[in-house]
Amino acid sequence: MRIFGNLFRGKPRPPSPTEELGKILDRFTTATIMGIDREDLGRYPAKQHKVMAFHFGAIKYLAEQYDLDETQTLGVFVTFIDKYFNMPITETGSISERLQGFLDNEDERAYLDAGLDVFRRWHKQNDRRAPLELGEMLKSQ
Q1: Number of Cβ atoms within 10 Å of the Cβ of 55
Q2: How far apart (Å, rounded) are the C-alpha atoms in residues 16 and 19?
Q3: What's the CA gap between 104 and 98, in Å, rounded?
């Protein structure tokens, strides 16, 4: 019976671009969290927004690499926010306002740009210490 199972079993479905991107982003986020005081982050929404902006920079980089459209990119960001910030789905409607804040707020824009650069160095140049820069940035504030 096992022969028939092996013979007729379909090939496993390759991961979708957003699934693959999510796995890479999870590894990057794990690396960035090493340098962050999570309790401190929970107490200060302004720091949370900077961390979100930093990771959105990484998401933007990956979205370009995987040729994701704006809706797919937004979906990846909502998934990230839900997973790492435990934001209820009912509050995700304000995500577009949050993204606009990343662009309009000078400090948050700096974190977005840094996140894009740090992610690129981590992912393309194998700079394993680069994600720790987020913690250093937050400490200097």
Answers
A1: 24
A2: 5
A3: 10
CA atoms within 13 A on the CB side of 108: 19
Q: pLDDT above 90 covers what percent of the chain?
A: 50
d(CA 121, CA 127): 6
CA–CA gap between residue 96 and residue 114 (Å, rounded): 20
Calpha distance 6→130 (Å, rounded)? 44
Q: DSSP labels for 55-81? A: HHHHHHHHHHHTT--HHHHHHHHHHHH
Residue range 116-121: mean pLDDT, rounded? 97
CA separation for the pair 47, 91 (Å, rounded)? 18
* Cβ(133)–Cβ(118) below 8 Å: yes
Q: 25 with 78: CB under 8 angstroms? A: no
Q: Structure tokens of 62?
A: 């990956």
Strand, helix or coil for residue 15: coil
Q: What is the pTM of this model?
A: 0.86
